[in-house]
């Protein structure tokens, strides 16, 4: 039997046959532009817009993507929208005017790969705190965006790229979680699928992994070939048959840092943009697909998800319930430096991670609320800037 689908959602895309699907991309960083370019490469009609706060950067980026599409023989203009997310009411008005069906956001106060630019020894010391303490940098702009989304009255499906494993469960307590995340768990799936297919003697398209894992696990296995002791659940399917018992999961993990090792940092965002497009294209076209999604409707960590015209649903293996899958991801969350996220959105960080952040950056934030997130992000940014100068 194929794995059953569970916990359906109502995140379906409005479909007006008289107009193309309208997609708003938020943020002018590297990932946003890669995704925006990818959205111009298929024939399914769509109306694209790019939103950012720097008017000149927004116009140049929108024109570059549109002209690249023209160069390849496609007519796909990109509408530039100049708006600062800090102005929540102004952002809400801009969203309402554009009237999107899908919003993809890669907005963040600091890209995840920035600390990798530090000298290797310093990067290793700060990296030992893991990713959780950097949550304010990603939560702050997504929080502002989601307040604007709610104020705009839009029914658009929101897809977020900025640390959805933790950002979404925090925002869920305020009823503000985006519907779907991208990357993280999804970034490990292509190599796992390819490695498993090679062992089974078939093509990657014939193998479907179902991977329940937090950002910590996906980050760890690509660099060390193991989960670092964090929990996960991984099964493999060939058609309706589970084939996990025919494979060595330890061997597959090892292959991610050996035979299928990949580029990290900013250049590695090529894979992250592909993960984003694997989620966005089924939403645009209505063609059913099983994908991997972090932060599904406010849940912690990552899950296999089925996207259909009616919305999305968890696509867990038969022996794994939603509650068990969430507990697996909460274990990964603790390994990532976040002790817990309460139902009302309070975040508690682990002592171990905060001790490192205090030692290396002079920054301490044992608990975080949505009320304090902007202040925490501003302080963390300032502390990191001083660290970079040193």
Can you walk through the features of this model?
- Strand 6, helix 6 and strand 7 form a beta-alpha-beta unit.
- With 390 residues, the chain is an alpha/beta fold.
- Helix 1 crosses helix 10, helix 3 (88-98) crosses helix 5 (135-152) and helix 7 (185-200) packs across helix 8.
- It is globular, with a radius of gyration of 20 Å.
- 43% of the residues lie in helices and 18% in strands.
- It has helices at 30-39, 55-71, 88-98, 120-127, 135-152, 164-172, 185-200, 215-224, 249-256, 269-285, 322-335, 351-361, 373-389, and strands at residues 6-8, 21-26, 46-52, 78-82, 102-105, 157-160, 180-181, 208-212, 233-238, 241-242, 289-294, 302-308, 311-314, 338-341, 347-349, 367-368.
- The strands form four sheets. A six-stranded parallel sheet has the order 4-3-2-5-6-7, sandwiched between helices. Strands 1-13-12-11 form a four-stranded antiparallel sheet. A three-stranded antiparallel sheet has the order 8-9-10.
């Amino acid at each position: 039997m194929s794995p059953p689908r569970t916990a359906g959602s109502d995140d379906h895309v409005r479909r007006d046959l008289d107009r193309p699907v309208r997609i708003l991309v938020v943020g002018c960083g590297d990932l946003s532009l890669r995704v925006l370019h990818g959205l111009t490469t298929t024939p399914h009609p769509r109306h694209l817009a790019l939103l950012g706060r720097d008017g000149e950067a927004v116009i140049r980026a929108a024109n570059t993507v549109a002209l690249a599409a023209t160069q390849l023989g496609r007519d796909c203009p990109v509408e530039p929208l100049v708006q600062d997310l800090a102005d929540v009411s102004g952002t809400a008005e801009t969203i309402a005017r554009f009237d999107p069906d899908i919003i993809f956001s890669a907005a963040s106060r600091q890209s995840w790969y920035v600390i990798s630019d530090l000298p290797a020894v310093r990067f290793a010391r700060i990296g030992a705190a893991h990713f959780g303490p950097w949550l304010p940098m990603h939560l702050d702009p997504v929080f502002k965006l989601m307040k604007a989304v709610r104020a705009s009255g839009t029914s658009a499906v929101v897809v977020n790229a900025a640390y959805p494993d933790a950002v979404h469960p925090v925002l869920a307590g305020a009823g503000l979680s985006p519907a779907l995340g991208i990357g993280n768990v999804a970034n490990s799936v292509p190599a796992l699928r390819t490695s498993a297919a090679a062992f089974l003697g078939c093509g990657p398209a014939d193998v479907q992994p179902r991977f329940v894992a937090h950002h910590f696990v996906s980050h760890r296995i690509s660099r060390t070939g193991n989960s670092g002791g964090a929990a996960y659940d991984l099964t493999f399917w060939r058609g309706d048959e589970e084939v996990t018992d025919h494979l060595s999961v330890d061997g597959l993990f090892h292959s991610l840092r050996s035979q299928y090792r990949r580029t990290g940092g900013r250049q590695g965002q090529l894979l992250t943009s592909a993960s984003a497009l694997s989620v966005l294209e089924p939403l645009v076209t209505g063609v059913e697909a099983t994908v991997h999604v972090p932060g599904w409707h406010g849940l912690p960590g990552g899950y296999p998800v089925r996207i259909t015209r009616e919305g999305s649903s968890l696509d867990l293996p038969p022996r794994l319930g939603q509650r068990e899958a969430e507990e697996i991801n909460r274990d990964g969350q603790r390994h990532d430096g976040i002790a817990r996220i309460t139902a009302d959105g309070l975040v508690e960080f682990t002592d171990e991670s905060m001790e490192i952040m205090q030692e290396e950056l002079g920054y301490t934030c044992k608990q975080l609320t949505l009320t304090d997130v902007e202040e925490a992000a501003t302080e963390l940014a300032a502390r990191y800037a001083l660290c970079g100068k040193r």
